[in-house]
Design brief:
- The chain is an alpha+beta fold.
- The protein has a domain of 99 residues: Aminopeptidase, CATH 3.40.630.30.
- It contains 5 helices and 7 strands; from the N terminus they run βαααβββαβαββ.
- The protein has a 7-stranded mixed sheet, sandwiched between helices.
- A hairpin with a 3-residue loop joins β3 and β4.
- The longest helix is centred in the first third of the chain and has 15 residues.
- It is globular, with a radius of gyration of 14 Å.
- 26% of the residues are buried.
């Protein structure tokens, strides 16, 4: 799929939150279940990230809104999401490649996010052995991954 990436702006904050919510509700339902989505907290995080000069947020959109996002800084892939109706089109791999090209050498992923972990491992990344608690209820474990 030929897509055009652009750098997100502060006017994209709500759309970024909505895309992340959409992907999380489908891909992580087995982790978060029926818990209410932390809309306000996630929106506040996007506002901060978009205002951080060290972080680049890139997006792809179609006529229905944002399709994919990737946020990265000089060393870390911060966020990657693809709208579920576009899963399997290669957008996650393309987003990942953009973060790697910008210098990302580590990331955090939910331990129970098998879909993402399979992608990262297929690209040669491996768990570093470091874990932490996710800030969202029910506070699942996150695993750090490092580039080869």
């Amino acid at each position: 799929m030929e897509v055009e990436w652009r750098v997100a702006t502060s006017s994209d904050a709500v759309a970024l939150r909505d895309l992340e919510r959409s992907a999380s509700r489908v891909g992580l339902a087995h982790v978060f279940g029926e818990l209410p989505y932390p809309d306000d907290d996630v929106l506040a995080r996007w506002v901060l990230l978009l205002d951080d000069p060290e972080v680049t947020v890139e997006v792809v959109e179609d006529e229905h809104g944002l399709v994919a996002l990737v946020a990265h800084d000089g060393s870390t892939l911060r966020h990657l999401a693809v709208r579920p109706d576009h899963w399997g089109e290669g957008l996650a791999r393309e987003a990942f490649a953009r973060a790697e090209a910008a210098g990302a050498r580590r990331l955090w992923v939910l331990e129970a996010n098998g879909r993402a972990r399979r992608l990262y491992e297929s690209l040669g990344w491996r768990p570093s052995g470091t874990t932490q608690e996710c800030p969202w209820r029910p506070y699942p474990t996150e695993v750090e991954y490092a580039a080869p």
